């Protein structure tokens, strides 16, 4: 399994999936047939995570070829990512608390066994090795993995979420963190997700049978409450000459770019990340940026955090594609405060419109998908 790094190739992959395999998604999406057979799912998540292609253009291209009723499950899964991002934007302290929690959790021998794939649970060990080798896991398998980690191996959910972020090409602050919270039973309080032997057997096509698990575990208890806070994104109608793009917001429309004198693409090193990413993930992100530099054919440059700080010493006003709550936003917030910078954040109108539906659970968000599709002429 190989993942490409350019927007043009990502669009080709999306179009090929729409033409050839999407019809199997509704009935086959929960099956993990292994790394050599992923035709029942799109494997587009690394490209959407980095916004090489967006959720919205993905939905539009799908609905151009297929009626909503035939691809409703796929569209809903695409919008889960938008929903999670909006949910975290409305409750940013969930991310900061998660990062703080990690600082106080020790990596004991049980943790070491788990991340080395040396437990007594074969399917789990295989998934650990698959994650490290291919930097991807099937979505259903991620849920099973997280449940085993939390309830059978009795390891902190925070360390599992960190492990995924370290190795996944599609690691996303919102989707990853909140999904682990959901499995643990603290995202929807009192409702956890329990992996069961029959479920693993069925959805791995009988590859793993009679897996011994804790199938009666109670949800994790976390008494912290997170109230909704208004989303406040600094904006200035007076556009700047220079544009900054972080690696998780790679695509900007060509018509928007013409006004910029220079574009700076930023990839933070592990020296300033709260969660250290694997070498493979860092290289993948770097290759994505290099592909964009070749594609846009404009005056552009790749910077790390040191280059960005040096740039801020010389220029105090920038446009920035809003990077959302996570590592990039946290870093930028600290640098802004220290250097007295003036930042004009550029957001996607689709994101801002959708995020207002993230104030409740996904059922409420899902009921508004037709409104979203209609508003932005995606169907």
How is this structure best described in words?
With 379 residues, the protein is an alpha/beta fold. The protein has helices at residues 7-20, 25-28, 45-49, 55-65, 68-90, 93-103, 109-115, 122-134, 139-152, 157-167, 173-184, 197-203, 254-257, 279-296, 305-314, 327-339, 349-355, 362-367, 369-375, and strands spanning 242-246, 262-266, 300-303, 317-321, 342-346. It has three domains: 1-91 and 349-379, Alpha Horseshoe (Serine Threonine Protein Phosphatase 5, Tetratricopeptide repeat), CATH 1.25.40; 105-203, DNA Cyclobutane Dipyrimidine Photolyase, subunit A, domain 3, CATH 1.10.579.10; 242-346, 3-Layer(aba) Sandwich (Rossmann fold). Helices cover 52% and strands 6% of the residues. It has a five-stranded parallel β-sheet. Helix 9 (139-152) crosses helix 11 (173-184). It is globular, with a radius of gyration of 21 Å.
